[in-house]
Amino acid sequence: SPIMSIANLAREQVFEELKTSAAGLTDAEAAVRLKKYGRNEIRELAGTPLVLKFLANLYQFFALLLWVAAAMAYLGGMPELAVAIACVVLINAVFSFWQEYRAERAIAALKKLLPSYAKVIRDGREKRILSAELAPGDLLVLEAGDNISADARLIEEFELRTNNSTLTGESAPAVSTADPVPEEKRHLTEYPNLVFAGTSVVFGTGKAVVFAAGMRSEFGQIAHLTQTVKTEPSPLQKELGHVTGIVTVFSVTLGVVFYFLGTGLGHLAPLQGFLFMVGIIVANVPEGLLPTLSLSLAMGAQRMAKRKALIKKLSSVETLGSTDVILTDKTGTLTTNTMEVKKVWTGSPARLDLAGVLANNAKLSADGSVIGDPTEGALLTYARKAGTDPLAAAAANPRLYLLPFESRRKRMTSINRDQAGNVAAFVKGAPKEMLALCRKIEVNGQVKELDEDRRREIISIIDGYAGEALRVLAIAYRPLPAGLKEYTVENVEQGLIFLGLAAMTDPPRPEAAAAVKKCEQAGIRVIMITGDYSLTAEAVARQTGIIKGECRVIEGEELDNLSHEALIREINEKEVLFARVNPGHKLKVVSALKAAGKIVAVTGDGVNDAPALKKADIGVAMGVAGTDVAKEAAEIVLLDDNFATIVNAIEEGRTVYENIKKFVTYIFTSNVPEIIPFILFVLFKIPLPLTIMQILAVDLGTDIMPALALGSEQPEPDIMRRPPRPAKKRLLDLPLLARAYGWLGLLEGAAAMAGFYFVYFSAGWRPGSPMAASGPLYLAATTMCLAAIVTSQIGNGFACRSERSSTFSIGFFGNRFFLFGVLAELVIINLLIYFPPLAKVFGLFPIGPVNWAFLLLFTPAVFLAEELRKLVFRTWLYGKRPNP
């Protein structure tokens, strides 16, 4: 690789390879290179224009069915109905587009993350230029706090440390070097003499030569990967396609059958038969389903927002509820993304704390947050908790000289003078290297010889800490002779007195273990996938309960050689975690799981997570620590960066799915009493009991509010103790269709026809006599048919609040929105009947108190009949008590 070759070159060879020098490029040469290689910008692939994104809502699965219904209504001579259905589609499209139009802005966020300016050396002088004008060969000047604008090779550094977490997922700052690094088989971001666009300088200074900018940078490669990942339909969108297919086949088949039946029997002329067929099809199409579904998902999204989960794509609400695998990052997701001293081994605690404070370049702000290296900040925090004030200690022991950290030495030394004038060196660094420099050890204020037995004891402790994936620092000191004039490494870092060990970790979030346990109870598998080291990853996985038994660690290099089939076998057969992975590896794991039929949620916060977040069924980004890239690529953003919030969101998602089933049952039930009048009309030549406009009054009028209210039911108590919904389980399954069409629908159909005949019977009609097909009597009869459907639906709505449990057990007043929906339903039907302009449009006629008394019997009749059915099924079929 050319890049790895650059890592392997010496300073002068780097200049030669990139055709530059210590004086940097000239402005003229930079301009030539910019023209040749392009500006240092993230180029966006041609995206879908906003207008096309809006239009997509007009030809989604169910919308197409409604357009066909509108066209048929228009051809059938019912332009009002056609306009009404078209308005439903348009209003729903506007609503959905408004909710989702910002969901595909990942590349805009990538551009925002790059800094606006960069410091470079041009023509031998330092100058500030727009980062977009950086060219290969430019000499970058890096200082603490700078964002890095391009991929570059370090040629000079002074204790430089960079935060690469947005690319690698690792929490600890990366220690840099300007020395050549031998070419090895490792990921590009692991080369310590390379720095990358989108990362930042935590500490120190340096200079680096740009070798890749814009789309050629690692950052740009991830941008390209994110753009090329196709967004696939969500499970709910796929399910809507299935529902559309069922409704279409059923509606058209029934319409065609009765067209030929009516014309074949001679009851209908061909034109009448066509109009009748249109009526059958329109009656079977639940026009209110699409807006009800969208509004229900929106309400679910609002409930999730209250629980700190922001939903960007409405269909994601239900998808999260059907998730059966969560691929979670470690740093900042399961952990706090802060270093913390977890264990200390010392015989001299006070002096250890003092040495940790003095051999330190970090600072604590007034609120306790760390400024500088998090590892050094952890030592300050620990010392302050133990009673040593870092500010006071530093003031009382001013620094005379600093031997900065070097990767070769693996330590740093601060030389300080105390108030008595004594000078001492305070050293911290890699434990085994430090131990080799120590000759004595301080225990309880006394300095003793560091014998071999004590050395072996310390090494054993170091190994034990390492086995717990703790980052271990050794701390030592040495009083310096008064006459020492040169503070060099050779003069100072020898004959040290060992003080002890500080073992630190990026601790798991306190609530993470409980959240993982809830996922386990819900049948959801949690798998860690991280760029961090395997030992660290495994320790966090065990602390949070993700791993309990023997663990199979798969690192990125091994993952490259695994096929999807082999990868799935490893996941299915063992407890696994993935470590040392790059963005391509994450994509591979997500793709394998999806190919195996899993519904996959991926959590993440860095740029490196964006492609996997977009590929997954559900991308879940961290809202506080997450980059804009991750937030824009994801469908869900956790506003509190709390892994436990995912569990709450899953609970809401499952509840949404169950509630969708409730209102789908409710809406589909009313199709049957809308169809039966047409069937009786063609078979027995009775006056048409219900008109198509009256059907619309139910589908887009009286049914909407109660259906929405059913979409806001509270989660059932055991919802997070059920396994995830199987990917092949259908929303419109046989039990739902049998309940809606074969039971509740037939009850409502009988009620509707009873209401229709009640008017004729009250007027003196008896079987065998002719029935008026026009005039006030006929209008009153159709009004009763419509009103009977409405009052039956009230009973049906109460019954649909639970699929199996008795409504008596969940309480009649548990969902006040539903009670409001029932009130709205009654208000709407009364407006349609008694407000003359509406009554004229829908062909209705005022009915009296006796008729209403008869109609209101249908509410308890349908409700109690369904309660009896549920009782029978609970007792006999499910073998459960009446009120589980």
Key descriptive features of the protein:
single chain; 51% helix; alpha+beta; 7-stranded antiparallel β-sheet; 884 residues; disordered C terminus; 8-stranded mixed β-sheet
Structural class: alpha+beta
Helix content: 40-55%
How many DSSP H or I helices?
Answer: 37
Could you tell me the radius of gyration in angstroms? Answer: 36 Å
Overall outline: elongated
Unreliable runs: 102-107, 880-884
How much strand? 15-25%
**Biggest sheet overview:** 8 strands, mixed
Overall mean pLDDT score?
84
Q: N- to C-terminal separation?
A: 65 Å
DSSP, total strands: 25
Describe this entry's structure for a reader.
- Residues 102-107 and 880-884 have low confidence and may be disordered.
- Strand 14 (411-417) and strand 15 (423-429) form a beta hairpin.
- Helix 32 (775-800) packs parallel to helix 37.
- This protein starts with a helix and ends in a 7-residue tail after the last helix.
- It is α+β, with helices and mostly antiparallel strands.
- The protein contains 37 helices and 25 strands.
- The strands form five sheets. Strands 10, 13, 14, 15, 16, 17, 18 and 19 form an eight-stranded mixed sheet that branches. Strands 1, 2, 3, 4, 5, 6 and 7 form a seven-stranded antiparallel sheet that branches.
- The longest helix has 30 residues, at 235-264.
Protein topology:
Elements: H1 2-8, H2 11-17, H3 27-37, H4 50-56, H5 61-75, H6 79-100, H7 106-113, E1 117-122, E2 125-130, E3 139-143, E4 151-163, H8 165-168, E5 174-175, E6 194-195, E7 200-212, H9 218-228, H10 235-264, H11 270-284, H12 289-306, E8 309-311, H13 316-321, E9 325-328, E10 340-346, H14 349-358, E11 363-364, E12 370-371, H15 374-386, H16 390-396, E13 399-406, E14 411-417, E15 423-429, H17 431-437, E16 438-443, E17 446-449, H18 452-467, E18 471-479, H19 489-492, E19 496-505, H20 512-521, E20 525-528, H21 534-544, E21 551-555, H22 556-560, H23 564-573, E22 575-579, H24 583-595, E23 600-604, H25 610-615, E24 618-622, H26 628-633, E25 636-638, H27 643-669, H28 671-684, H29 692-702, H30 704-710, H31 734-762, H32 775-800, H33 807-810, H34 816-834, H35 836-842, H36 849-855, H37 858-877
Parallel strand pairs: 9-20, 9-23, 16-19, 21-22, 23-24, 24-25
Antiparallel strand pairs: 1-2, 1-3, 3-7, 4-5, 4-6, 4-7, 8-25, 10-19, 11-12, 13-14, 14-15, 15-18, 16-17, 18-19
Helix pairs in contact: 5-6, 6-12, 10-11, 11-28, 12-27, 12-30, 14-15, 20-27, 23-24, 27-30, 27-31, 27-32, 28-31, 30-34, 31-32, 32-34, 32-37, 34-35
